[in-house]
Amino acid sequence: MLAKQILRTALISLAILVVAVALDYLVNVVLVPGGGANYTPLSTIGITLFVAPPFTFYLIRQHAKVERALNALAEERVARQTAERANAAKSQFLAMMSHELRTPLNAILGYSELMRETAEAEARSSDVRDHSRVVAAAQKLLGLINQVLDFADFEANRAATHIVAFDVARLAEGAVEAIRPHAAENRNRVALNLGEDLGEARTDEEKLRQCLGHLLGNAAKFTRDGAIGLRVRRSGERLVFDVRDTGIGIPPDKLDDVFQPFVQADAAETRAYEGAGLGLTIALRLARLLEGDVTVTSTPGKGSTFRLEIPAVLLRKGEHLRRVA
Q1: Are 212 and 190 within 8 A, CB to CB?
Q2: What Rg do the C-alpha atoms of the chain give, in angstroms?
Q3: For residues 258 and 277, what is the distance between their CA atoms, to the nearest angstrom?
Q4: CB count in 10 Å sphere of residue 86
Q5: CA of 260: how far to CAs of 58, 89, 256, 284, in Å?
Q6: How many helices (H) and strands (E) would you count in the chain?
Q7: Is the pTM of this model over 0.70?
C-alpha cells in the first residue's frame, strides 16, 4: 500500500512539474517579448519539487483513509441491515407462533385446575398440593411466554390500538386486585389511592391494563415484606398513574437500563428474582403506543416510583385531522 502511494505521488508530482514548467515558459517567454534571453526554469522546478510531493502524498494518504472509512461504513450498513432482517424475521415468527405456544399451555392450565377442583371436592389434600404446583408453574411459564410474544409483536410492528370508553377507577381497581396474589407471595401490602373526578377515559383499555399489570408486577417482584401502592389522578387532559414500592430500589447509574429488553437493574443483586427482563420494556412501549410515557425515580434500599402518564382521550388519525381542520 505504501509503495503504491509513493509511486502515485511521484507520477502526480512529475505531472505537476511538467505543467508548472510549461506554464512558466508560456508566461515568461512566449507572452513576454524578449524574455527568453535570461529565462531559466530552475526556480519553478525547485519550488514545485519542494511543494508538490509532500502535499500530493498527504492528499493521497487522506484519500486512502476516506476510502477505508467509507468501506467500513458500507460493511457496517450491510451487517446492520442483515441483522435487522434477521431480527424482523425472528419477531415475525414469534408473533405468528403465539397461538401454537399459548393454546397447549392453556389446556394444561385448564385440566390442572379441573383436577385440583376434583381433588378438593374429594378432600385429597396431597393431590391438591401437587395440582397447585403444576398450576403455579404453568401460570408462571404462560406469563413469560406472553411477555416474549408481546415483545415480538412490538418488534414486528404488529401492535395496534383498539379505542373504547371505560371507567378509569374500575380499571385501576381491577389492576390492583389482579396483582394481590403475586404481592401476597412476598408478604406485601397493596394499596389503591383514587383521585377525584377520574371519570371515563377513551383509549385502549386492554393496553392500559397490561401496562399497569407490568408496572405493578415489577413492584411485587422486587419488594418483600413491604408495601406497593397505586395512585391515580387526573392532570388536565391526562391521566397519571404512580406505582410506588418499598423494594430494593435501583442504583442511579442503572436507571437508564431498566427499560432495555432482557435487562434487570443489577444482575448480581437481582439474580434471585425470576423473569425475562421484559416487563418494563413492554410497559414503556405500551405507554408510547398510547401516546404517553413511563418515567422512574428510585432510591436504592428504599424503593422506586414508576409514573405512567397518558392522554385521557386517544384520538385516531382521522379524528385528529378533523379537529385541526
Answers
A1: no
A2: 35
A3: 8
A4: 10
A5: 45, 21, 8, 10
A6: 8, 7
A7: no
Tens-digit pLDDT string for the chain (325 aa): 788 888 888 888 888 888 888 888 887 777 776 666 677 788 888 888 888 888 888 888 888 899 989 999 999 999 888 888 877 777 667 666 666 777 888 888 888 889 989 989 888 888 888 888 888 888 778 777 777 777 776 766 667 788 999 999 999 999 999 899 889 989 999 999 999 889 999 999 989 998 999 999 999 999 999 999 999 999 989 999 999 999 999 998 888 888 887 665 555 554 555 555 678 888 999 999 999 999 999 999 999 999 999 999 987 654 443 333 3
Name which of 144, 117, 227 is nearest 179 in CA terms. 227
221 close to 179: Cβ distance less than 8 angstroms: no
Q: Contact at 8 Å (CB) between 17 and 52? A: yes
Q: What Å distances lie between residue 56 and 2, 46, 52, CA to CA?
A: 14, 16, 6
The neighbour count for residue 296, using CB atoms within 10 Å, is: 19
Among left, alpha and beta (phi > 0; psi -120 to 50; other), residue 301 is: left
Measure the N-to-C terminal CA separation of the chain; round to a whole number of Å. 64
Q: Which residues contact residue 188 at a Cβ distance below 8 angstroms, ignoring those fewer than 6 apart?
A: 220, 223, 224, 225, 226, 227, 228, 245
Percent of the chain as helix, strand, coil, to the nearest 5:
60, 15, 25
Strands 189-194 and 227-235: parallel
Give dist(CA 51, CA 321) in Å, integer.
65
Length of the chain: 325
- State the residue for C-alpha cell 392453556: 106
Burial 302-312 (b: 16+ CB within 10 A, else e): ebbbbbbbbbb
